[in-house]
Amino acid sequence: MKPVTGSTPRVVKTEQEWREQLGPEEYAVLRQAATERPFTGEYTDTKAEGVYECRACGAELFRSDTKFESHCGWPSFFDPADSDAVILREDHSMGMARTEVLCASCHSHLGHVFRGEGYPTPTDERYCINSIALRLLPES
Protein backbone atom coordinates (compact mmCIF):
# COMPACT_ATOMS: atom_id res chain seq x y z
CA MET A 1 0.00 0.00 0.00
CA LYS A 2 1.28 3.45 -0.87
CA PRO A 3 2.05 5.76 2.06
CA VAL A 4 -0.50 8.44 2.90
CA THR A 5 1.03 11.86 2.48
CA GLY A 6 1.19 14.17 5.48
CA SER A 7 -0.02 11.64 8.03
CA THR A 8 1.75 9.27 10.37
CA PRO A 9 -0.06 6.17 11.59
CA ARG A 10 -0.44 5.77 15.36
CA VAL A 11 -0.34 1.98 15.05
CA VAL A 12 2.78 0.86 13.21
CA LYS A 13 3.59 -2.78 12.48
CA THR A 14 5.70 -4.57 9.94
CA GLU A 15 3.90 -6.37 7.14
CA GLN A 16 4.96 -9.65 8.78
CA GLU A 17 3.31 -8.57 12.05
CA TRP A 18 0.12 -7.69 10.14
CA ARG A 19 0.20 -11.10 8.40
CA GLU A 20 0.51 -12.85 11.77
CA GLN A 21 -2.36 -10.83 13.30
CA LEU A 22 -4.83 -10.92 10.39
CA GLY A 23 -6.35 -13.82 8.51
CA PRO A 24 -5.56 -14.11 4.77
CA GLU A 25 -8.79 -12.40 3.63
CA GLU A 26 -8.46 -9.68 6.27
CA TYR A 27 -4.86 -9.05 5.22
CA ALA A 28 -5.80 -8.87 1.54
CA VAL A 29 -8.44 -6.20 2.17
CA LEU A 30 -6.89 -4.21 5.02
CA ARG A 31 -3.25 -4.22 3.94
CA GLN A 32 -3.42 -4.82 0.16
CA ALA A 33 -6.59 -2.84 -0.69
CA ALA A 34 -8.53 -5.83 -2.01
CA THR A 35 -12.33 -5.83 -2.00
CA GLU A 36 -14.57 -8.53 -0.59
CA ARG A 37 -17.26 -9.87 -2.90
CA PRO A 38 -20.53 -7.90 -2.74
CA PHE A 39 -23.38 -9.21 -0.57
CA THR A 40 -21.09 -11.63 1.28
CA GLY A 41 -19.88 -9.52 4.20
CA GLU A 42 -20.92 -10.05 7.78
CA TYR A 43 -22.26 -6.51 8.24
CA THR A 44 -23.90 -5.82 4.87
CA ASP A 45 -27.44 -6.16 6.25
CA THR A 46 -26.75 -5.80 9.98
CA LYS A 47 -29.11 -3.49 11.81
CA ALA A 48 -27.61 -3.96 15.29
CA GLU A 49 -26.78 -0.77 17.17
CA GLY A 50 -23.22 -0.14 18.22
CA VAL A 51 -19.80 1.07 17.16
CA TYR A 52 -17.86 -0.20 14.16
CA GLU A 53 -14.14 -0.34 14.79
CA CYS A 54 -11.15 -1.11 12.58
CA ARG A 55 -10.56 -4.86 12.58
CA ALA A 56 -6.81 -4.26 12.34
CA CYS A 57 -6.25 -1.81 15.20
CA GLY A 58 -9.52 -1.32 17.09
CA ALA A 59 -9.95 2.39 16.34
CA GLU A 60 -13.55 3.63 16.32
CA LEU A 61 -14.57 4.35 12.73
CA PHE A 62 -18.35 4.48 12.30
CA ARG A 63 -21.50 4.30 14.42
CA SER A 64 -24.65 2.37 13.61
CA ASP A 65 -26.75 5.55 13.55
CA THR A 66 -24.93 6.60 10.36
CA LYS A 67 -25.36 3.22 8.62
CA PHE A 68 -27.95 3.06 5.87
CA GLU A 69 -29.24 0.63 3.27
CA SER A 70 -27.67 1.46 -0.07
CA HIS A 71 -28.26 -1.98 -1.63
CA CYS A 72 -24.74 -1.86 -3.10
CA GLY A 73 -23.50 -5.08 -1.49
CA TRP A 74 -21.32 -3.57 1.25
CA PRO A 75 -22.08 -1.77 4.52
CA SER A 76 -22.70 1.93 3.83
CA PHE A 77 -22.35 4.87 6.21
CA PHE A 78 -22.97 8.56 5.59
CA ASP A 79 -20.37 9.88 8.03
CA PRO A 80 -17.40 8.63 10.08
CA ALA A 81 -17.68 8.59 13.87
CA ASP A 82 -15.13 11.41 14.09
CA SER A 83 -13.72 13.69 11.42
CA ASP A 84 -10.24 12.37 12.26
CA ALA A 85 -11.24 8.67 12.23
CA VAL A 86 -10.48 8.16 8.54
CA ILE A 87 -8.12 9.46 5.89
CA LEU A 88 -9.27 10.01 2.32
CA ARG A 89 -6.95 9.77 -0.66
CA GLU A 90 -7.27 9.69 -4.42
CA ASP A 91 -7.38 6.23 -5.95
CA HIS A 92 -6.89 5.76 -9.69
CA SER A 93 -6.65 1.98 -9.62
CA MET A 94 -8.74 -0.25 -11.89
CA GLY A 95 -9.12 2.55 -14.44
CA MET A 96 -11.40 4.61 -12.17
CA ALA A 97 -11.14 7.87 -10.25
CA ARG A 98 -12.31 7.13 -6.70
CA THR A 99 -11.61 8.24 -3.15
CA GLU A 100 -10.13 5.55 -0.93
CA VAL A 101 -11.00 5.44 2.78
CA LEU A 102 -8.23 4.44 5.21
CA CYS A 103 -8.19 4.03 8.97
CA ALA A 104 -6.42 7.12 10.32
CA SER A 105 -4.92 5.10 13.16
CA CYS A 106 -3.20 2.29 11.22
CA HIS A 107 -3.66 3.29 7.55
CA SER A 108 -5.49 0.08 6.71
CA HIS A 109 -7.73 0.09 3.62
CA LEU A 110 -11.42 0.19 4.51
CA GLY A 111 -13.18 0.90 1.22
CA HIS A 112 -14.19 4.00 -0.78
CA VAL A 113 -16.40 7.05 -0.38
CA PHE A 114 -18.75 8.24 -3.09
CA ARG A 115 -20.50 11.60 -3.30
CA GLY A 116 -23.52 12.96 -5.11
CA GLU A 117 -25.33 9.68 -5.69
CA GLY A 118 -28.67 11.02 -4.46
CA TYR A 119 -29.09 8.92 -1.31
CA PRO A 120 -31.34 10.68 1.23
CA THR A 121 -28.61 11.17 3.82
CA PRO A 122 -27.49 14.36 5.62
CA THR A 123 -24.06 14.35 3.91
CA ASP A 124 -24.87 13.00 0.41
CA GLU A 125 -21.89 10.68 0.94
CA ARG A 126 -21.72 6.89 0.89
CA TYR A 127 -18.79 5.37 2.72
CA CYS A 128 -18.78 1.95 1.07
CA ILE A 129 -16.80 -0.18 3.53
CA ASN A 130 -15.71 -3.81 3.42
CA SER A 131 -17.33 -5.80 6.26
CA ILE A 132 -14.08 -7.68 6.80
CA ALA A 133 -12.36 -4.36 7.61
CA LEU A 134 -14.77 -3.78 10.51
CA ARG A 135 -15.73 -5.25 13.86
CA LEU A 136 -19.06 -4.32 15.44
CA LEU A 137 -19.16 -3.68 19.16
CA PRO A 138 -22.89 -3.93 19.93
CA GLU A 139 -24.48 -1.59 22.44
CA SER A 140 -25.43 -3.39 25.62
TrEMBL record:
Cofactor needs: Zn(2+)
Catalytic activity field: L-methionyl-[protein] + [thioredoxin]-disulfide + H2O = L-methionyl-(R)-S-oxide-[protein] + [thioredoxin]-dithiol
Enzyme class: oxidoreductase
Name of the molecule in the record: peptide-methionine (R)-S-oxide reductase
NCBIfam families listed in its UniProt record: peptide-methionine (R)-S-oxide reductase MsrB (TIGR00357)
GO cellular component: cytoplasm
Keywords per UniProt: Metal-binding, Oxidoreductase, Zinc
Gene Ontology BP terms: protein repair; response to oxidative stress
InterPro entries membership: Met_Sox_Rdtase_MsrB, Met_Sox_Rdtase_MsrB_dom, Mss4-like_sf
SUPFAM superfamilies associated with the record: Mss4-like
Keyword Acetylation (UniProt): no
EC number: 1.8.4.12
Domain called MsrB: residue spans: 15-139
